[in-house]
Amino acid sequence: MRIAVVNCNTTESMTETAAARARLAVGPDTTVVAITPSWGVESAEGWYDSFISAAAVLHTLERLPADIDGVVMAGFGEHGREGARELLEIPVVDITEASAHLAMLLGRRYGVVTTVRRAVGQIEDSLMTAGLLGHCVAIEDTGLGVLEIDADPVATADAFVAAGERAIARGAEVICLGCAGMAGLEEHVRERLAVPVIDGVVAAAALVETLIRQRLTTSKLDSYARPLTKSRRWPGAEG
């Protein structure tokens, strides 16, 4: 079994971090393939970045190796999820919805801790589209940019804990990591927060693997029917 972890940005180190976390969630007979778009944005922070990112990811998925059995979309709140499900016949799981689904198995209300404030609206929309916003009581930002997360691990953990405590004060019983770049952070803050912390990359990898083992694929009736056949061009794309 081969699962592709597809980064939403062009920063290779973030792709490798996400893929490494995904490997911890799958069985020994499952191979995780790390994929970085050849063009796009170095970090997706805001609507403009997100739409560029979505186009780059979908362009990348058009060229997905034929031996891939499932896809993890490693962008929290980023666009493109529904388009990927139209394009591909194999299971596609986005880390935003994966973390929320698992959180709702552990508590009635969950919160999200993300990077910058401008990401909150996108996350709300992504969860609403997935039908998961109703149980989300808080989306708190750390004020850290995506590329700042690895710069000072201690400061990142402190900012995450502070934001997590704000979410808990608003009623969250479970916390979701709101950025693929935060993958693995839950191990450093687990003892400092009184609730479970969910890594969306791990959650998505586990869910994709389960769908593949159950031989379940995306429905192609109506909502995620294959895209119409027509000419499509990708200006500025490599390859």
Which descriptors apply to this entry?
alpha/beta, globular, 239 residues, 4-stranded parallel β-sheet, single chain
Description:
The protein has helices at residues 12-25, 47-62, 81-87, 95-106, 120-129, 153-169, 186-189, 200-213; strands at residues 2-7, 31-35, 70-74, 92-94, 110-114, 136-141, 174-177, 197-198. The chain is 39% helix and 15% strand. Strands 2-1-3-4 form a 4-stranded parallel β-sheet, sandwiched between helices. The chain has a 4-stranded parallel β-sheet with strand order 6-5-7-8, with helices on both faces. The model has no long low-confidence stretch (mean pLDDT 93). It contains 8 helices and 8 strands; from the N terminus they run βαβαβαβαβαβαβαβα. The chain has 239 residues and is α/β, with parallel strands linked by helices.
* Low-pLDDT runs: none
Proportion of residues in extended strands? 15-25%
What general outline do the C-alpha atoms trace? Answer: globular
Q: Give Rg in angstroms.
A: 17 Å
Alpha plus pi helix count: 8
Helix percentage: 25-40%
How many β strands by DSSP? Answer: 8
Helix and strand string, N-terminal first? EHEHEHEHEHEHEHEH
- Going by helix content, strand content and strand pairing, the class is alpha/beta
Q: Give the neighbour order of strands across the main sheet.
A: 2-1-3-4
Write the layout of secondary structure elements.
Layout: E1 2-7, H1 12-25, E2 31-35, H2 47-62, E3 70-74, H3 81-87, E4 92-94, H4 95-106, E5 110-114, H5 120-129, E6 136-141, H6 153-169, E7 174-177, H7 186-189, E8 197-198, H8 200-213
Parallel strand pairs: 1-2, 1-3, 3-4, 5-6, 5-7, 7-8
Helix pairs in contact: 1-8, 2-3, 4-8
